[in-house]
């Protein structure tokens, strides 16, 4: 079925290098954005590098040779692994059909997917919907423009846009494959956000929801990958950033408003979360 998780190349290699979000250093060979004319089709063929195809208009049909056809709907990304014989064609019954493609590798050190040099650490999906992520569609279009241009920042632009696209795909695949967070977590997050201007910690959360602090900690680690304290600090910093950057409040006033004992402690936490001091947020 479209979007089902699968081992896209049909094999696994024990001990192979894996590429996750932290190891991702993508390269770019080709990037484009075009409308597919009637009668245009690709294949049977195979590529020597992985390919991402964004359907920005209409819909397409894709299949690995010997397997059923899959519909690739508008505002979805098709992943075609290397060395897999396949066919791809527009379905003009849906009207205008547009495609944007990326060819490259996920590492910049010369390792290739086709030669078993690496694999994505997260099991890829053949088709990933991106209708709720318009920035991904915009990134494909800007990537094609940058690759075809000659601007001074062309290489950096292409690298960062490609990384943005792949990071979103990794996140989407991990979310779909991973266990759903506890249903009890959402009301806890809402409770924290409603009490950020007060002294709160996991003990207060435990008392409010009739659980032990250890259980609260486990729920946050399982559902979000962070401790309750980390979540509270980040949420406070995000509120503080809004006050500094949008409302123009003073650093000391903002620190007091969001429960930090003094501006120096606030500055350390803010810098750790945001990567820059609160004074820069006011500019």
Explain this structure:
The chain has nine helices and eleven strands. It is of the alpha+beta class. The protein has two domains: 160 residues, Regulatory protein AraC (Jelly Rolls); 97 residues, Homeodomain-like (Arc Repressor Mutant, subunit A, Orthogonal Bundle). The strands form three sheets. The protein has a five-stranded antiparallel sheet, with helices on one face. A four-stranded antiparallel sheet has the order 3-8-5-6, with no helix packed on it. The protein has a two-stranded parallel sheet with strand order 1-10.
Strand composition percent: 15-25%
Topology order in helix (H) and strand (E) letters: EEEEEEEEEEEHHHHHHHHH
The helical percent reads 25-40%
CATH architecture of the largest domain: Sandwich
What best-fitting shape do the alpha-carbon axes yield? elongated
What structural class do the secondary elements suggest? alpha+beta
CATH domain topology of the largest domain: Jelly Rolls
Q: Report the count of strand segments.
A: 11
Précis, in short:
The chain is built from nine helices and eleven strands.
Blueprint of the fold:
Elements: E1 18-19, E2 30-35, E3 42-45, E4 51-57, E5 60-64, E6 70-72, E7 76-80, E8 86-90, E9 98-103, E10 119-120, E11 127-129, H1 134-148, H2 154-177, H3 185-194, H4 202-209, H5 213-223, H6 228-245, H7 251-257, H8 263-274, H9 278-281
Parallel strand pairs: 1-10
Antiparallel strand pairs: 2-9, 3-8, 4-7, 4-9, 5-6, 5-8, 7-11
